[in-house]
Write a structure and sequence with these properties.
binds adenosine-5'-diphosphate; 30% strand; 10 strands; four-stranded antiparallel sheet; alpha/beta; globular
Length: 226
């Protein structure tokens, strides 16, 4: 029972400079609860794939499905984590973590309570009253993850979430994200150009060739080396 499906997906960007083929005839399935990485050189269409799954735009051709239904628009079923944390500097950590919940209609008090629980769970107890500039990059990414998880998405899309971090912090966060998503039973699709990161985090790694991304190979990662 797949959570995510791309069936013969082609996407062409069209703008005033012309047309650019980003993805061509891509087939991809991610099972419920599976952690899959998409690895490939810059420009091979990784972000395009995530954007379509997030409902930001429709593919030019083919089908993009979430729970076997066509993705037509963004929904709270899907959470997104990016390289930049996009925290609001004028909001406290706690109010940043609660923001997604507030925007989707939760009462402020309930949102803040849930955000505080998640921050504690992600190793940031008691930092809620601080502001983003007081935290390190790794800490801020934990806040971004708390904000994403607060709305209880079924699927997490992760677009190079660690690539701006120092190696040591990056390894710590990889572990934290992997363990947290596994414990919560989330389905995840991670985009990265770092093959060792993909191997460390995933059940399965899909390697794409250069633009337009075609699947070059697929690796199933045994538990013993993760
Ligand atoms: P990746 O995430 O693997 O680096 P992208 O999905 O960002 O790749 O881009 C795939 C291709 O589509 C690239 O050739 C890129 O230049 C092109 N592209 C991406 N976004 C746009 C856009 N908004 N308009 C036109 N072309 C784009
Ligand atoms: P329509 O029948 O008008 O096309 P939709 O399919 O967009 O309606 O949505 C019908 C209901 O199913 C909505 O409540 C929506 O939140 C939910 N829904 C839509 N897509 C999905 C999905 N991929 N997975 C789970 N629920 C969905």
């Amino acid at each position: 029972d797949p959570a995510l499906t791309l069936r013969q997906v082609t996407h062409v960007y069209v703008n005033d400079k012309g047309a650019s083929l980003a993805v061509e005839d891509l087939n991809l399935t991610v099972q419920r609860g599976e952690f899959v990485s998409l690895v490939g050189p810059s420009g091979c269409g990784k972000t395009t794939v995530l954007s379509m799954l997030a409902g930001l735009f429709l593919p030019t051709r083919g089908e993009v499905l979430l729970n076997n239904r066509q993705v037509k628009q963004p929904s709270t079923l899907v959470g997104y984590m990016l390289q930049q944390d996009y925290l609001f500097p004028w909001r406290t950590i706690l109010d940043n973590a609660a923001l997604g919940l507030e925007l989707t209609g939760s009462k402020t008090r309930a949102a803040v309570e849930k955000a505080a629980d998640l921050l504690a769970e992600l190793g940031l107890p008691g930092s809620g009253a601080r502001y983003p500039h007081e935290l390190s990059g790794g800490m801020r990414q934990r806040v971004a993850l708390a904000r994403t998880l607060a709305t209880e998405p079924e699927v997490l899309l992760l677009d190079e979430p660690f690539s701006a971090l120092d190696l040591h912090i990056k390894l710590q966060l990889e572990d934290l994200v992997k363990e947290t998503l596994r414990r919560l039973g989330k389905t995840a699709l991670l985009v990265t150009h770092d093959l060792s990161e993909a191997v460390a985090m995933s059940d399965r790694v899909i390697v794409l060739a250069a633009n337009p991304g075609r699947i070059r190979c697929e690796l199933t990662i045994p538990d013993s080396i993760r």
